[in-house]
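2024-03-11 09:14:02 DEBUG pipeline.ingest accepted 1 chain
2024-03-11 09:14:02 DEBUG pipeline.ingest length=252
2024-03-11 09:14:03 DEBUG pipeline.predict start
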Amino acid sequence: AHDPSRVLLTGHSAGGALALHLLYVEGFPASAVAVTANYVPPTVSVSNVRSHRDIPLFYAVGKADPNRFLMRDGLNMLRGQRVSVTVRRPDIGHVFDPNTIAEALTWFQDQCRRMTESDLKQAADVLTTDDPPGAALAAIERIAAHPLCFDRDHAVRAADLAKGLRLRGKMLLARADAELRLRHIFVAGDLLHRIERRYAGSSLAAEAGSRRIQLERRPELAWTLRLERTDQDMATLIDAPDWLLSSIGAGL
C-alpha cells in the first residue's frame, strides 16, 4: 500500500533524463521529482511542461559535470513555464554524490510536509462549510491511518479533523439504523446512498455502501423495498403537473 499523493520520481544521469520524460511526456503520477547530473531530454516540449508545471522539481548538476551546458536550455524552459524548480550546483563532476542525494531526499520530505499541511488546511476549511467532505476526509484518513509516517502533530490534527468530518455522516448512519428498525427499508437505503455520495472516497462512504448492498440483498426485504419504491413513484406521479402526466401518457 502507498499514499498516491506522495510519490517521488527520481533519477541520476540518463535516469534523470528518463524521469523528466516520464513526468512531462508520459504523465507519470508523481508528487515531486528529484533529478541529478542530467539534462532535459529533447522529447520534452514546452506544452508538455506547461501541462505538468505544478509538480515541484529538485534539479542538481555539478559545476564540473559535462551536462552543465545542456542543463541551461532545459532550465530556462522549465522556469519559463513557471515550474517550481529548486536548483543545486555542487562542486562535483558527473558522479553519484551521496550529499546531493541526501539533500534531494530532505527536499522531498519538505514537499511531503507541505502537502500534508495543505490537506489539513483543506479539511479544516470544509468543517466550516456545507461542502461535501468526501475528498478532504479521504486525504486526512490516509494520514490518520499511518501516524508513524508523518510528523506527530500532523497525525494528531488529522485524527481530530477526521472525527469532526465524520460526525454528520455517523449521525446519518444512526438515523438509517433507526429507520431500518421501523421497517422503513427504502428510507434507510436512501440515507445510506446519500452518505455514499456526500462522503465519496472515504471509509465512511465505503461503510455506507457495504451496508446498503447488504440491505438490498436480504431476500425477506426485497419485496418490501420494491413496494416502497413503487409507492414513492406513485406519489411523485400524483403530485406531477398535468403537462408531465400528458407527456407520459403520450409516450405510452
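2024-03-11 09:14:41 DEBUG pipeline.report Residues 18 and 186 are 55 Å apart (CA to CA).
2024-03-11 09:14:41 DEBUG pipeline.predict end
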